[in-house]
Design goal:
Elements (H helix, E strand, L loop, with lengths): L9 H5 L5 H9 L6 E7 L2 E6 L7 E6 L4 E4 L9 H11 L20 H11 L23 H32 L23 H10 L3 H13 L6 H20 L6 H11 L5 H6 L5 E16 L2 E10 L5 E8 L13 E9 L8 E6 L4 E2 L8 H14 L5 E13 L6 E5 L5 E3 L2 H4 L3 H9 L4 E8 L2 E8 L3 E3 L3
Antiparallel strand pairs: 1-2, 2-3, 3-4, 5-6, 5-8, 6-7, 8-9, 8-10, 11-12, 11-14, 12-13, 14-15, 15-16
Helix pairs in contact: 2-3, 5-6, 5-8, 6-7, 7-8
């Protein structure tokens, strides 16, 4: 057996990068002249990278996590040195240069790397230093049950008051006519007329005051729709109807079935602690070998969001692991597409469970197979079934097999066509503005592909394609 463990591909390494700048910087550091004292053994890679100071940066990576440690001051996770080291170990840099496979020799880790690796070994399945299994901050001690219950009741009353106010503003909007909402009068759509004649931003701020961030986000979306595009009135009416449904669902939450009530709570912004899902009295985990289908990092104001999609090998269930980073809180460790992870997941309560918390890992991640998929008709049916349970759902994750990217018949946009040519699914306009559609077309070359993405009312948003190794798409 290779003492260095399974060597990663360049695509697996680059899937960890937090942004394009890190890809470029890491690629430059994948050259042999950047590193000294490198080595690899038992799923760990280490080395010293020459920097601007007198002392080199000491970098070590546990590829079984993966997890990273570097002495540089960067707040990015992983930093450019960790990416450069992994690219050098993989045998190539982002620009096509770097060490040849085997340039990082097998050996024993130096003391500074061995100490960190030993600390990780004392806590299998989670990072050291008290971090949570996903790499986030330690969970806080539970508050007194009585005080927590009083706070929860006060918040429920505030959200209910906000929902009633929003219902009145939506009623005022419909009485005044949707045309009033499109009179932005200048700058941004969100500055235009909102419910009751106030601005959308003002209405969203009222929902924030009511401690209902989910309602606030939907109000801002109304502001973005108003006056934007030729069919904005119909889209605005649809979103107003969904917002009205959410308001009414929360105001009558005691009469809803428990799974639907949980969905409504999450949609208005009430969260469930991941620690309670994994270790609480009602914890119910699902162990499986989970194939990593895609990873997406995005900016949301001061926060960075990481979305990792998984599919159970035995159960066939889809899952979405979310983590948030910002300030001094790093994101959870990245999981590049194509890895197979033997782990426990705990699903958040919902009428159609998807989001899950990552629990104990029972074995190191290993390269996984190409996932089984379905045709376009079956994918649309899956989205329809999920939408029946959660009417506020934008999209549902699916794997499509034997589909070919082709231009749409009207020349506007692209679509994915089944092998028999009987069904086609338009691509989400968001991928048309990025490089994903051209990546798909180039990889396909007119041949059918296996593609993972989200199927929703905007179309299909491709995130990963297998060729035959997984290739993340730029969306």
């Amino acid at each position: 057996m290779n003492p260095q463990g399974e060597r990663w591909t360049t695509d697996q390494v680059l899937a960890l990068a937090p942004d394009e700048a890190s890809v470029t910087a890491g690629g430059r550091l994948a050259a042999p002249g950047s590193w000294s004292e490198t080595g690899a053994r038992d799923g760990a890679v280490w080395g010293e990278c020459r920097g601007s100071g007198k002392k080199p940066y000491r970098t070590v990576v546990d590829v079984k996590g993966p997890a990273f440690r570097c002495s540089c001051p960067s707040r990015k996770f992983p930093c450019q040195h960790a990416l450069g080291l992994l690219l050098f170990w993989a045998g190539t840099g982002a620009g096509g240069h770097g060490g040849e496979p085997g340039a990082v020799a097998a050996g024993e880790p130096p003391s500074w790397a061995a100490e960190w690796l030993a600390a990780r070994g004392e806590h299998p399945g989670r990072p050291p230093d008290g971090a949570t299994p996903g790499g986030g901050a330690p969970s806080r001690a539970p508050a007194a049950p009585e005080a927590a219950e009083r706070r929860a009741e006060r918040r429920m009353r505030r959200i209910a008051a906000g929902a009633r106010e929003l219902e009145q503003r939506l009623e005022d909007l419909l009485h005044a006519g949707l045309a009033a909402a499109g009179r932005a009068g200048g700058a941004s759509p969100s500055a235009g007329a909102g419910p009751g004649g106030g601005s959308w931003d003002e209405t969203a701020a009222r929902m924030v005051d009511a401690q209902a961030p989910g309602l606030a986000a939907r109000v801002r979306e109304l502001g973005a729709i108003s006056g934007a595009g030729a069919d904005w009135p119909s889209r605005l009416l649809e979103e107003c109807a969904l917002l009205h449904l959410l308001d009414q669902g929360f105001l009558g939450i005691d009469r809803l079935p428990a799974p639907l009530a949980a969905t409504v709570r999450s949609r208005v912004g009430l969260t469930t602690e991941a620690a309670g899902l994994l270790t609480g009295p009602d914890a119910a985990t699902v162990r499986d070998r989970w194939l990593i289908l895609a990873q997406q990092d995005g900016e949301d104001g001061a926060l960075t969001t990481r979305r990792i999609f998984l599919r159970g090998e035995r159960t066939g269930r889809m899952a979405l692991h979310l983590s948030f980073g910002g300030g001094h809180r790093p994101l959870d460790p990245a999981l590049p597409p194509g890895l197979l992870l033997d782990a426990d997941l705990a699903y958040y309560p919902a009428a159609r469970p998807l989001r899950a918390a990552l629990g104990e890992r029972h074995a190191p991640a290993v390269p996984g197979p190409v996932p089984p998929g379905r045709g376009i008709d079956a994918a649309l049916a899956a989205y329809g079934d999920a939408l029946r349970d959660d009417p506020w759902l934008d999209a549902w994750p699916v794997v499509l097999t034997d589909v070919t990217p082709i231009p749409a018949r009207d020349g506007e946009g692209w679509q994915l066509a089944d092998a028999d040519g009987e069904s086609a699914l338009p691509l989400d306009p968001r991928c048309l503005r990025a490089a994903a559609v051209w990546q798909l077309a180039a990889i396909s070359g007119g041949a059918p592909l296996t593609v993972f993405g989200e199927c929703g009312h905007r179309g299909f948003l491709p995130l990963t394609v297998w060729d035959p190794a997984p290739v993340p798409l730029a969306v």
